[in-house]
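Reply to thread "Modeling small-molecule complexes from scratch"

Following up on the discussion above, here's a worked example others can learn from. I took a protein sequence and the SMILES for nicotinamide-adenine-dinucleotide and predicted the complex. Inputs first:
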Amino acid sequence: VSEGRLNGKVAVVTGAARGIGAATAGRLAREGACVMLADLDEAPLQQATAELRREGAVVDCEAGNLSAPDVASRLIDRTVRAFGGLDIIVNNAGYIWPQAIHRMSDDQFEALVDIHVGAPFRILRAAATPFRELAKRESASGRLTHRKVVNVSSIIGLSGAPMSANYAAGKAAVVGLTKTLAKEWGRYRVNVNCVAFGMIATRLNDPDVAKSPLLEVGGRTVNVGTMGANYEDMQALIPLGRAGTVEEAAAGILMLCLPEADYVTGQVLVVGGGLE
Ligand SMILES: NC(=O)c1ccc[n+]([C@@H]2O[C@H](COP(=O)([O-])OP(=O)(O)OC[C@H]3O[C@@H](n4cnc5c(N)ncnc54)[C@H](O)[C@@H]3O)[C@@H](O)[C@H]2O)c1
């Protein structure tokens, strides 16, 4: 906790137990923000939180399935109570559940639309009250601050990909949510942007199929490791020639949270090494 470009800010990062979310929580915490880490996977969530605490970060965590009722509003309430404010929300939690459309059930479609746009919608709806109240109070006192929302999309949401009707629909919809709230919340000085990742090296695309990770969500078990089947072919398509690291992904999110981005809103930043 040394650089301090986010000193005094309060952040929520979802999907923070591992991968891009854990790297983002660490990055924001090292810039001085108090961070609430959220995830459904309790053991790695506790571990990620404990590791950051050992570094001296001010962090806490809230476990829960963000597709279940009331989990989003509980997360926002708890963050405001724990840290006394709310400045940054990173809607990152997500997973893949690939299937050809002729085999995709309603459940399979709806589950991914829900986690990629439904959960961000519920989180941001819950944040509307503190965001509006804080902004009004600051307007009255003349002490104006910008708040930041970064929603995580994917180049699959912008360009599509086979076997991804559910994922692409959710990741495209979150762009619409982003652009709408940028317009709705400009008056409260809340900047709402998206980061669309290309291929970032996490368990979602680990080429070692034997390691196929399973996600327990809403009473189902989903293999979230199947994107790695085309790992080599995919890397060859990336202009920079390699997958991105989680630190590089977190850096893309951080950029949109800094004061330097106070006049940037409603945008989609593609962090993909040139892949689009
Ligand atoms: N890795 C990539 O190449 C890539 C590319 C584009 C977009 N993304 C997006 O980036 C985000 C992070 O992905 P990652 O690669 O770090 O994956 P990951 O599996 O390493 O981490 C995702 C985390 O989200 C959590 N999560 C999933 N569903 C949840 C739910 N219903 N409630 C609460 N927590 C939940 C998981 O438990 C996990 O810890 C996702 O939204 C993903 O779609 C990733």
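What I'd highlight from this example: Helices lie at 19-30, 42-54, 71-83, 106-141, 155-159, 165-185, 231-237, 246-257. The radius of gyration is 18 Å. Questions welcome below.
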